[in-house]
Task: inverse folding
C-alpha cells in the first residue's frame, strides 16, 4: 500500500514528462493537418530547415570535441606545480568562462581572416568554422574547470598510494586519477554540451546558415504570420528534442552517482 | 578638461603599443560606446530582481502540490531550459510582439519596445533556472522542520514564507549566483533585436574603425569585472546569511 502511494506521483510525473516531450511536435503536426495550405508550405520548407539543423549539430559536435580536448589538457595544467604554467591557464579559464558566448563568436568571426594562406595556397576559412572556434573557447574553459574539480575531488591518499607503488606524478594522473575523473565529470560535461548546443543558434547572428537563420529565411520568403509562428515552433521543437533527452539523462546520472 | 587629457593620454599610450582607441577622442562614437556599457549595466541591474521575483513565484507553483499550478510552470521551465534563449527572443519579438501590435491596432501604437522583450525573455529564462534551484532547496528542507511548523499552527503559505523559503534560499544561493552570472552573459542576446547594449554599440564602432581586437579586450575585461562583482556579492550574502549550526 505504502509503496503504491509512493510510486503513484512518480509514475504520474513520468507520464507528464513523456507527454511534454512530444507536445511541441504534436502541436506542429496537428496544426499542419488542420490548415492544409500551411502544412504543405511547411513540408516544402522542411528540407531547408533540416539542412540548417544539420549545421547546428556539426558546429556543436566539433566545438565540443575541440573544447573537450583543450579543456582536459588545461584542467590538468591548472594543477601543474609550476606557477609559470598555472597562472596563464587560470587566467584563460577565468576570462573565457565569464565571457558571453556571443561576444566570443563575434571575436572569432571578425578577428580571423576569411581565408588563410598556406604555402601560397589560399584556403577559405568559412564562418561556421569560426563559430566552432568561438564556441570551443568557452567550452574549453568550462571543461577545464570540470576536469580540475574532478581531479581535486579524488582523495589525496590515492596520490600517495600511487607514489608508494612507484608511479610517477604523470603516470599516477594517467592510470589512476583520470579514469576515476571520467565518471564524475560526465554529468557536468553533458550540461556543457547542452549549453553549447543551444549556443549554436547564436551563429545565425554572424550569418552562418543554421536552423534559426533558415527559419528567418523561410518566414521572410513565405510572408504569412501563421507560417512564421510554425517555423519558429519547429526551431524550438528541434532544439528541445535534442537537449531535453540530454538534460533528463544528466539528471538521472547525477542521481545515480550521488546515491552511489 | 582633466578628463579630456586623461582620454588623450590613454589614446596616445595605447597607440604606441599598436592598439587603436582613437575613437575615444571623438564625441559621437565614444558616446555610443559609453551608452552601450550603461545599457548593459542597466539591463543587469533590472534583470536581477525581475528574475529573482519570478523565480520565487515559479518555485512556489512547482512545490504547491496542485497539478493545475505546477504542470504549466513545469512545462514552461522545461521548454525554457532546453531551447536557446535567442530562439525564444526571436519568437517573442517576431510573433508575440506582432500579436500585441495587431491587438492595439498597428505597430506605432505598440508600447512594447525591444528592450522590454529582452527583459521579459532573459528574465523569465533565468527565473526558470532559479525556480529549479529553489525547488531543489525547498525539497531539501527536512520534513520534520515542516511538520514542526505545522504543529505550531502555520498554514501552507506561512510555512513557505517563514520556514521553507528562508532555508531553501540559503541552500540554493550558490546555484542562484551561478544563474546570475549566466544572466549577465545572456544580456548580449539583445543584440539580435537591436537593443543597443555593449556588443551592438561595439559593432557600430568597429565597422567604422576596424578595431575589433581593441574593443574585444575591453568587452572581455568588462564582463569579467561584472561577473567578479556578482560572484563576490553572492559570496558575501552567503556568509552574511549563513545560519550557525545549520549544516551547509
Result:
Amino acid at each position: 500500500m505504502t509503496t503504491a502511494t509512493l510510486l503513484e506521483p512518480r509514475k504520474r510525473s513520468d507520464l507528464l514528462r513523456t507527454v511534454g516531450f512530444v507536445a511541441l511536435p504534436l502541436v506542429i503536426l496537428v496544426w499542419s493537418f488542420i490548415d492544409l495550405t500551411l502544412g504543405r508550405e511547411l513540408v516544402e520548407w522542411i528540407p531547408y530547415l533540416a539542412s540548417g539543423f544539420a549545421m547546428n549539430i556539426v558546429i556543436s559536435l566539433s566545438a565540443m570535441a575541440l573544447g573537450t580536448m583543450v579543456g582536459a589538457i588545461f584542467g590538468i595544467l591548472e594543477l601543474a606545480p609550476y606557477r609559470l604554467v598555472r597562472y596563464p591557464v587560470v587566467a584563460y579559464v577565468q576570462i573565457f568562462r565569464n565571457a558571453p558566448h556571443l561576444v566570443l563568436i563575434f571575436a572569432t568571426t571578425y578577428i580571423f581572416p576569411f581565408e588563410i594562406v598556406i604555402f601560397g595556397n589560399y584556403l577559405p576559412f568559412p564562418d561556421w568554422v569560426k563559430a566552432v572556434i568561438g564556441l570551443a573557447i568557452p567550452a574549453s574553459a568550462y571543461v577545464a574547470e570540470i576536469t580540475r574539480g574532478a581531479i581535486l575531488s579524488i582523495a589525496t591518499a590515492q596520490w600517495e598510494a600511487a607514489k608508494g607503488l612507484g608511479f610517477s606524478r604523470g603516470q599516477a594522473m594517467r592510470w589512476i586519477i583520470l579514469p576515476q575523473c571520467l565518471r564524475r565529470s560526465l554529468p557536468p560535461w553533458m550540461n556543457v554540451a547542452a549549453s553549447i548546443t543551444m549556443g549554436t543558434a547564436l551563429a545565425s547572428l554572424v550569418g552562418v546558415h543554421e536552423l534559426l537563420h533558415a527559419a528567418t529565411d523561410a518566414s521572410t520568403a513565405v510572408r504569412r504570420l501563421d507560417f512564421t509562428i510554425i517555423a519558429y515552433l519547429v526551431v524550438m521543437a528541434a532544439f528541445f528534442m535534442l537537449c531535453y533527452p540530454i538534460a533528463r539523462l544528466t539528471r538521472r546520472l547525477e542521481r545515480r552517482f550521488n546515491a552511489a | 578638461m582633466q578628463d579630456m587629457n586623461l582620454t588623450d593620454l590613454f589614446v596616445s599610450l595605447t597607440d604606441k603599443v599598436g592598439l587603436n582607441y582613437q575613437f575615444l577622442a571623438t564625441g559621437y562614437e565614444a558616446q555610443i560606446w559609453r551608452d552601450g556599457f550603461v545599457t548593459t549595466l542597466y539591463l543587469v541591474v533590472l534583470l536581477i530582481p525581475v528574475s529573482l521575483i519570478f523565480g520565487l513565484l515559479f518555485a512556489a507553483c512547482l512545490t504547491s502540490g496542485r497539478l493545475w499550478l505546477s504542470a504549466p510552470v513545469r512545462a514552461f521551465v522545461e521548454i525554457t531550459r532546453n531551447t536557446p534563449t535567442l530562439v525564444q527572443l526571436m519568437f517573442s519579438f517576431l510573433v508575440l510582439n506582432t500579436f500585441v501590435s495587431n491587438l492595439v491596432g498597428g505597430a506605432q501604437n505598440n508600447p512594447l519596445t525591444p528592450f522590454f522583450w529582452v527583459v521579459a525573455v532573459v528574465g523569465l529564462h533565468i527565473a526558470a533556472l532559479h525556480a529549479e534551484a529553489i525547488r531543489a532547496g525547498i525539497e531539501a528542507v527536512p520534513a520534520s522542520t515542516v511538520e514542526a511548523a505545522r504543529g505550531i499552527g502555520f498554514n501552507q503559505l506561512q510555512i513557505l514564507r517563514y520556514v521553507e523559503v528562508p532555508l531553501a534560499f540559503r541552500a540554493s544561493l550558490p546555484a542562484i549566483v551561478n544563474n546570475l552570472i549566466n544572466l549577465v552573459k545572456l544580456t548580449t542576446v539583445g543584440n539580435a533585436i537591436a537593443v543597443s547594449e555593449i556588443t551592438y554599440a561595439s559593432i557600430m564602432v568597429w565597422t567604422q574603425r576596424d578595431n575589433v581586437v581593441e574593443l574585444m579586450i575591453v568587452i572581455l575585461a568588462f564582463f569579467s569585472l561584472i561577473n567578479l562583482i556578482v560572484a563576490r556579492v553572492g559570496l558575501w550574502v552567503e556568509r552574511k546569511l549563513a545560519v550557525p549550526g545549520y549544516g551547509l
